Every structure is written in C-alpha cells, then in structure tokens.
Amino acid sequence: MRKAESSMDVIKVDKLVKKFGDFTANDHLSFQVKKGEIFGFLGANGAGKTTAIKILCGLSAPTEGRVEVAGFDVEHQTEKVKKSIGYMSQKFSLYEDLTVFENIRLFGAIYGLSAGLIRERSERMLKNLGLYEQRNRLIGNLSLGWKQKLAFSVAILHRPQIVFLDEPTSGVDPVTRRQFWELIYQAAAEGITVFITTHYLDEAEYCDRVTIMADGKIEALETPRKLKKQFDCETMNEVFLKLTRPH
Amino acid sequence: MVSVTNLTKTYGSVNALNGVNVQVKESELFGVIGPDGAGKSTLFRIILSLLLPDSGEVEVWGFDPVKDYRKIRQMVGYMPGKFSLYEDLSVEENLGFFATVFGTTIKENYHLIKDIYQQIEPFKTRPAGKLSGGMKQKLALSCALIHKPKLLVLDEPTTGVDAVSRSEFWEMLQKLKKQGITILVSTPYMDEASLCDRVALIQKGKILDVAAPSEVVAGFDGKLFGVSGGNMYHLINACKSFEGVESVFPFGEELHLTFKDRDDHSEALMEFLRGKGFDKLNIRLIRPNIEDRFMSLMSSESFHE
C-alpha cells in the first residue's frame, strides 16, 4: 500500500541541504508532492524558496540530500528533469514582439514537439481560451490577464508532469484571476502537478496542500483547512504571520 | 483636501482615465484599489503635477497641479511603484539628499521618520542598491516623508512584498495617519482595502465605487453561496451548467456562486449536483467580501475580456 502511494509522488525531496559558503539556504527539507496535486510553496522573502525551486528545476545542484522530480534525479539526470517540467514566472513569460501563434510555435519547438502536434495543440488551446481570433496579434498588445493565461497554457503545451508557477497572478483583476485558477484546476484534473509560489496568502487557500518556509526550514506542511485549525486562525494570512514573524 | 472632478486622460487610443471623480479628506487613509492598467498610477501622477490631464479639474488643498505645480511639489511626498532612489548612494546619503532638495534637514523632521528609519539605521552606510526589498521600502518611505508633506502618495508600495513586510508597512501607515498626514495609497490587492478609511475601486479608467470598505461590501446585492465538495474543476463546470446560476468563481476552498434572480435556489442546485455524482456537497449562505463586490461591479459594467 505504502509503495503504491509513493510511486504516485512526482516530487520527492529527502533531507535537501543547500549551502552558499557559510550560509544555509535550505536546511534539511523533506517533502513529497503527489501527481495532480496543487502544491503551494510559501515563505517570506529570503526564506529559501527560490533556491529550492532552482534545485527542483535542475538549475542548481543540492549540497546534500536527494531530490527526485518526475522520477529523475535532479543532480544526475538534469536534462530529463527539464523535459518533464513546465515553468512560468510573473516577470518573464512570453516574447512581446512575437505574435500569439509565433510564441506557441517557439516554445513548442524548444520542447521538441513536431509542427503537426504544435498546430493541433495550439488550435485546441487557443479555442479553449477564447483567443483563437487573436492568434496573429503581437503579445505586447494583449492585456496582462490574457498574457498570464496564455503563458500558463504555453508552459503546459508539452504536457509536462509538473508545472512550476512563480507568482503567476500578480496584478490581474479578480475575474481574470479566477479564470486563471480555473485553468490550474483543469490542468490538475488532467493529472498535471502544479507547484506554485505566491506572496498573496488568499491564493494559498486554493491549494490542496501548502508548505510554509522560514529561515531555510519547512515550518508547516498541510492542507489549508488543517493549518487554519491547527493554528486557530481564520485565514492563511494569519497562519503565515504566526509562523514567520520574528518574535 | 484632494478633489478630482471629471478627470480624463488618454494615451493615444487608450482611455487611461475616463471621467474620474474622487474626494480625499484631510488626514484620511484613502486606498485606490484596482488591477494593473486600471489607471491608478495615471491618477496619482496627475494629482502630483507630474502628468497633464486632458480635461477635468484637480485641486490639492486649493492648488491646481497644472498652474501651481511648484506649491504642490513642496506639499507632497511620493513613493513611486518602482524603487527610485540612488542605488549607489548610501542609506544616509539618500535621506540627506532628499532633505536638502526640499530645503530641510534630517534633524528637523527626524521625529516623523524615527520609527521607520531606526529599523534601517544600522545599515546607514550601505549603498541603497544593496538593501533587501523590505529595507528599500522603508528607506523610500523615509525619503518621501523627510520634508513633512501634507499628502503622502504611495503607488503600489506592497506589490511583490511578502506578507510579513506588507503587514508591517500597513502598521507604519496607520501611525503616520495619526500624525495628521493625508495618505493616498494604491494596491492591486483587494484584501488590503479593509486597512483603509475609504477606498475607490477602479477598473479600466473608471471608478466603480467610492466608500468605506464595509459600505463597499454592503453594496453587494442579493444572496451569495459557498459551494464545496469533490474535485474543484468538475464542480465548477457542473455548477456552470445549472440553469439558474449567474456566476461561479473559485475562492480557495469554496466556490462563490450567485443565482440569476439573486435568490436562494440552493436546494435545487444540491439536487442537480447530486444527480451528477457529487455526494460530499456543502452549500452555505456566506457573507460577500470586497472581491465579490468588485467582480459584481465589473460584470455590471461589462468589463469582461
């Protein structure tokens, strides 16, 4: 039973340590993320989130410990890890001076999809988003909300097992933010694991489970409902402040 | 003390501000709440005399930002959205520079910034560019306050800042307000509205509502339901396919749902969803929050993309 469960874990982190000189950015992190789970990764600035994400994406090697992503060791099978994941950040998502369709073709080709597959998937994706008529418009002329929704769809175009989202919804209007979350739910329902960081704690409530990091360590890892109960708080924001505020 | 009437500003074919009316009272903490591109920065920059309006009237303590811009610039402190201090000057040099430009000294108004500046004073010889995000913010606020402005204008001070620093920042604003400074602050984060005395909700250059946060929420018309149970994605689609449903939005652990006549049809919806195989359902009447109200105002103005 236990074995069957653990084989469903698409991210396995075991006693991960990352040091930069004397500074310990990640101090013995251990956690697992299940297939199709929406996993929130929270923490104050400087808590060690970015360091951990870079290791999970195969961009930085752990000092100690073992990290497996999509069944591959991040240290020794880096290229296989990169092919199994998608990534979207708030800061950089798509090329502003390329059209919608050109961006899709570019990212599809980078991930090694055939021209036929790119055409087929992009048509379905753009129709699903309601952007098909806009496919020849420059990205720079789209609203922020459209850019974010499109960037997410492009990040999962190659059907990765896991998609990493780094503060994906900053600054968009509340309706667009909900549409974005519907896309996330859809991807999760299709079996894609969603690993998301955000500073906005109301977004933590959308996740299946959340971890809260402080000073390089994981301070809590649970469903939002249980965390709120455990710390006797109304909102995830209060839980976060209780755990991370210097006393 | 700040009065904006029928203010319009266009950039080419884009209507950045479309007939905006706002009044800010003396010693008020006034929030301008809206997403990116709503017109928040444009509104602030016109009030600050940094941008010319196309039409409409603006008065800041009786002064006109176009004609009396010199007077206004002495009266206001501005913290722009982007960090805009001198990165290669030290903390102390930046503060000294701003004090000198406004013809004052750090000593003269130290009492105003003491609480904030003390937190970064141990690093006063460090170049501003080498500070952490939270410290940069405290320095920028100190520099905006050092000439004792009547009006403090803060453009998205909490964007991209972690929850701990954000909560400290709002506490600092409450203290400044007690010292009689009028504060105009913008944020894309609706949950920060409740920390203001009054707020203006803005979207696509139009003001949707101006009121105290509790009044904004109270303006929500009809009944709102929280629905949960089962897979979120399938639940959203199932709720949307129910005839009487007007809107369904994910809100964390629950969906927020309204019916077309804004009445209670939760029994019928429950029945319908059970028929679709959802068996662990929970539907309850809930109190709307500021985002529910904002979205409801957006849909009535048909702002959807």
TrEMBL record, chain A:
It comes from Marinilabilia rubra. InterPro entries: AAA+_ATPase, ABC_transporter-like_ATP-bd, ABC_transporter-like_CS, P-loop_NTPase. Coiled coil: none annotated. The keyword ATP-binding applies. Keywords: ATP-binding, Nucleotide-binding. This is ABC transporter. GO terms for molecular function: ATP binding; ATP hydrolysis activity. Residues 11-240 form the ABC transporter domain. PROSITE patterns: ABC_TRANSPORTER_1, ABC_TRANSPORTER_2. SMART domains: AAA (SM00382). It comes from the Bacteria.
TrEMBL record, chain B:
SUPFAM superfamilies: P-loop containing nucleoside triphosphate hydrolases. InterPro entries: AAA+_ATPase, ABC_transporter-like_ATP-bd, ABC_transporter-like_CS, ABC_transporter_ATP-binding, P-loop_NTPase. Residues 2-229 form the ABC transporter domain. Keywords: ATP-binding, Nodulation, Nucleotide-binding, Transport. Gene3D superfamilies: P-loop containing nucleotide triphosphate hydrolases. One of its GO terms (molecular function) is ATP hydrolysis activity. It comes from the Bacteria. Belongs to the ABC transporter superfamily. This is ATPase.
